[in-house]
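Hey, weird one. I pasted the Cytochrome sequence into the form twice and got a warning about non-standard characters only the second time. First submission, copied straight from the form history:
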Amino acid sequence: MTEPRTPAGQGCPVSTDAVKLAGISYQQTPSELYRSLRREHGAVAPVLLDADVPAWLVLGYSEVSYVTSHDELFARDSRRWNQWERIPPDWPLMPFVGYQPSVLFTEGDEHRRRASVITEALEGVDQFELGRDCHHIAEQLIAEFAGSGQAELMSGYAHALPMRAVVQVCGMPTSGDDTRQLVDDLRISLDAGEGDDPVAAYGRVGERLRQLVKDKRAAPGSDVTSRMILHPAGLTDEEIVQDLISVIAAAQQPTGNWIGNTLRLLLTDERFAVNVSGGRLSVGEALNEVLWLDTPTQNFIGRWAVRDTQLGGRHIRAGDCVVLGLAAANTDPQIWPEAHVGAENAAHLSFSNGEHRCPYPAPLLADVMARTAVETLLERLPDLVLAVEPEQLAWRPSIWMRGLAALPVEFTPVVR
């Protein structure tokens, strides 16, 4: 990763009441921490990242919207960070913050140029064909466990389906050791568990995609990678590799957790129980409610203050790191004063906001994958139930992603 050019300064002070973003209680029940932070600090709270590196967590809906709408104040180039001198090369969050020639870190006209390539490449994905392909993938995955009467849906279905779908639209084979290793390395890079090496995993992802770009330059096809290569903007191979990492990472892990979180809601909430066996009526509502209440991307790091400024009554210094608390913003009592989240509207911040939001039409493609996965499963296994009590379900230990560690289910075996 590129070494930072910005010299370190004093920057964001370590507040005596700063909260460390770690621990089992936070990972399992983050909403309680958000409420506590709001009571103590308001819409912007001082927090500590790994190795006690200070940052600001933005909790308010209006404040997150403000940050993401004002790139001139809160920009994406991480080389501005005033804490670089204390960040070791193997820092666990380096895949998130280490500057790369990626669309994620570009700004202004360069960002618009890079984002337009991704947008146009994704617009070439036919949503009806994607839905058909996802249905076919879902049928294949279900067939692998349908006869047993039981399954673990997170690894065997929720993450497997978008993985196969996204590598297919990018022009990679949907199975094989290379593809499985790529997806596993992406997970480690963005949601590392104990004993994982996210920096090494990120390096392996880059190498695999460099080979893909080389292959597609020699023999382009009808896929996202080829369209990025052939785009008149003329991106370099390394720019395409870095932007492909962003596309694949955004499509696979969050969509898998969106599917899993929606299935959990459908299987545990009595409001949906009557309609689930009927198939389609409540699936769209459940998908949208999850984006409000259990959004797959809980927090996003980050933005860096371009100059000294004010946010939520806090003095933010130039170079301070600002973490977007997307999950906290979605449940901000200022927008839901009666504590009732209106899942019927789609004004959530789960795909972020502003120029650096998830590029159109990526949210639509993710919806096709998630909706097809949930609907197909319920149609094929209409008597699907949890194999454990709801309170026994455990969330993955992550402050960034919201997803179940496992989702064990039971159903009547399907004999083919």
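That's the output from the first submission. The warning seems to come from a hidden character in my clipboard, not from the data itself. Residues 19-410 form a domain with the Cytochrome p450 fold (CATH 1.10.630.10).
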